[in-house]
Amino acid sequence: MTRDSSASSLIVGGAASSPRAPLPTLPPLALYIHIPWCVRKCPYCDFNSHTASPVLPEQEYVDALLADLDQDLHAVYGREISSIFFGGGTPSLFSAEALGRLLEGVEQRIPFAEDIEITLEANPGTFEQEKFVAYRKLGINRLSIGIQSFQQEKLKALGRIHNGDEAVRAAGMARQAGFDNFNLDLMHGLPDQSLDDALSDLRQAIALNPTHISWYQLTLEPNTVFWNQPPVLPEDDTLWDIQEAGQALLAEHGYAQYEVSAYAQSGRPARHNLNYWSFGDFIGIGAGAHGKLSHPDGRIVRTWKTRLPKDYLNPEKSFQAGEKALTNDEMPFEFLMNALRLTAGVESRLYPERTGLSLESLAEGRAAAEQSGLLRVEPSRLAATERGQLFLNDLLQQFLN
C-alpha cells in the first residue's frame, strides 16, 4: 500500500456505529508529534522509542511528518490547533532548525490559536543552553523535563542517562532560556525506595519551582526489561504511605492535584493533556502516533500510525496503520476513561456535546457506580469520589458493554 492509499481501507474493528446525533460543536483540536528516538531505552519504558543512531534522519523525518499531516488535513478543514505536544522518545535530540522547519510547515497547513501551548519533552542528559534558547525563539513555550528521580542510585536502577546534578541544572537552564512554564516528571514506587527517598525527590522538585509536576507510580509493563526481570519494589503499605505523604506535601506547597498523577500551580494545568482528558480531538503524526477526530455527523474515529521508524520512513508503506470508528456501545467507556481521571471530573453536559449521545446512555452504569460509592451523586457533573479515584478501574468497569 502506498502513502496515497485511502485510509478507509484500513478500518479495524466491529460493525459501524448506529446513527447518533450530530455534534453541536466540534471539540478543541490538538496536535501530537512523535519523535521516536532516544539515547538509550529505559528498562521500564513501554513507549514507542528506539535507540538513536549517531546521525538522526532529521530532514527525512520532518518531510515524512508533514506528508503524514497532509493526509489528515481533509478531516480538520477550517479548524485551528489549540496545543502541540512533542513526545517521544526524546524530542530534544532534534535540532532547533529541524523543529523550526516542522512548526513552520504545520502552521502553513493549519492555523495556530493565538494562545497556543507548545510543549517539548526533554531529558536532562540532552540539555544544551544554546539549543533551548533557540527552541524558545521558535514559539515552543512549555517544557516537560523527564527527571524521574534526583538520587543517583535510583537513576541508575531506572537506566537514566543523567545524574541528579544534571537534573537540577536542567530546570535552571530551562528558566534561563525563557521558559516560565515547565513540568518536571517524577516517579515514585521505585526499586527499594523508602518514604524518605520519595519525599526527598519531591522536595527537590518543589524547590526548583516548576509550574507543574507529574508524579506517578512506577508500574511494570509488558514488553519491557522490568517486566521480564522485575526489580524489588516497595511493599503496598509503603506505596500507600508515599502516596498520602506526597500528595499532602504537594498541596502544602501550592501544587493542586487535578488529575490522577498531575499537580499544578494555580492556572498552570497542562492544556494539551486537559484536552485528552476532556475527550477533545487530536491529530497524531509520527511513528506510532495515535489520534482521535470527531466529525460533524457524529462519527468519532481513532487512528494509529505505522509504528517502526524504518517503516514510517519507507515511501512504499502507508503512514496510517489503522483506524476505528467508535460505536455507541464503546462511547461511555471511551469518554469516561479519560474524564474520570480528572479529580473534579467534567460537567455532565460535556458528554452529549462530545459524543452525540444522551446522558441516558450512561444511566445504568451511573446508578451502579453511585450506589457503590465510586461516582459522585451530582447530576451536573461526572466525577469520581475519592474512593472512585483509588479504584478507577473498578469504576470504569460499570460502563463496559
UniProtKB/TrEMBL annotation:
GO-annotated molecular function: 4 iron, 4 sulfur cluster binding; coproporphyrinogen oxidase activity; metal ion binding
Primary location group: cytoplasm
Cofactor: [4Fe-4S] cluster
Domain Radical SAM core: 23-259
Subcellular location: Cytoplasm
Keywords tagged on the record: 4Fe-4S, Chaperone, Cytoplasm, Heme, Iron, Iron-sulfur, Metal-binding, Oxidoreductase, S-adenosyl-L-methionine
GO biological process: porphyrin-containing compound biosynthetic process
Pfam family, one: Radical_SAM
Gene3D superfamilies, per database record: Aldolase class I (3.20.20.70)
Family: Belongs to the anaerobic coproporphyrinogen-III oxidase family. HemW subfamily.
Protein name in the entry: Heme chaperone HemW
Organism: Pseudomonas fluorescens
Taxonomic lineage from the root: Bacteria, Pseudomonadati, Pseudomonadota, Gammaproteobacteria, Pseudomonadales
